[in-house]
Amino acid sequence: MVDLMPPISRVIGEHRAQILQKLDGKPGEWTVAALQNQQAMDTVIGCCYELLPGLVRLAVKEPAFRTFMMNNRDRIITQLVPPA
Questions:
Q1: What pLDDT is attached to residue 16?
Q2: Of 19 and 67, which is predicted with more confidence?
Q3: Distance between CA 13 and CA 6 in Å, rounded?
Q4: Distance separating alpha carbons of residues 2 and 8, to the nearest angstrom
Q5: Which of 19, 22, 32 is nearest to 74 (CA)?
Q6: Residue 51 vs residue 20, higher pLDDT
Q7: Are 68 and 43 in contact (CB under 8 A)?
Q8: Confidence of residue 66 (pLDDT cuts 50, 70, 90)
Q9: Angle at 23 between CA 22 and CA 28, to 5 degrees
Q10: Domain total for the chain?
Q11: Is the dihedral of CA 77, 17, 31, 47 positive or negative?
Q12: Residues 9, 77: Cα–Cα separation, whole Å
């Protein structure tokens, strides 16, 4: 099993502003609330998957990636919107 958190953390760290811009938001409570929304998470998942290194995308297909991201939603939200 591939541990996806290191590449996801790297993608979020490098592209955090770009991902949040696609959500039309800024870090803060609104963004946390938005990320609880299925449509917003779909946007984040799509952005992150496209930004993963090609070798990771070859090893992990998008449906499995989506499942992983939804199962780890709280960890993803924490990385996008660090606690104040």
A1: 85
A2: 67
A3: 10
A4: 12
A5: 32
A6: 51
A7: no
A8: very high
A9: 130
A10: 1
A11: negative
A12: 11
Q: Which two tokens stand for residue 61?
A: 């297909």
Cβ-proximal residues to 61 (8 Å cutoff; 6+ apart), any chain: none
Which CA distances in Å does 65 have to 3, 6, 46, 54?
11, 13, 10, 13
The answer on pLDDT for 74 being more than 70 is yes
Per-residue pLDDT, 81: 76
Residue percentage of the chain with pLDDT more than 70: 81
Distance CA 40, CA 42 (A): 5
Provide the domain limits for residue 43.
Answer: 5-80
What CA–CA distance (Å, rounded) separates 39 from 2?
Answer: 26
